[in-house]
């Protein structure tokens, strides 16, 4: 595994909310730690309401994880632009997160352990 990245099963059940709505809940989430960055929870797609997510043209590249594609979150009153991302074809060292989705915690978007 890349020296500064660790991926482990997330303990307990995790929920993601946006605009007050629950987008998903999972007891199969993964916890990713990368250097000094805040921990990120990755959710399996099967545990998310994918109808709330709209794939965008935005992408970024991480030297350790590969190319990330992004989704905007559609809530009743707001669209959270590029607030979720996924590695569709990650580098081998982080293959566990393939196709899973992580969320940018911000005003109106929360990822919490329940």
UniProtKB/TrEMBL annotation:
<protein>
    <recommendedName>
        <fullName>DUF427 domain-containing protein</fullName>
    </recommendedName>
</protein>
<feature type="domain" description="DUF427">
    <location>
        <begin position="15"/>
        <end position="104"/>
    </location>
</feature>
<dbReference type="InterPro" id="IPR038694">
    <property type="entry name" value="DUF427_sf"/>
</dbReference>
<dbReference type="Pfam" id="PF04248">
    <property type="entry name" value="NTP_transf_9"/>
</dbReference>
<dbReference type="InterPro" id="IPR007361">
    <property type="entry name" value="DUF427"/>
</dbReference>
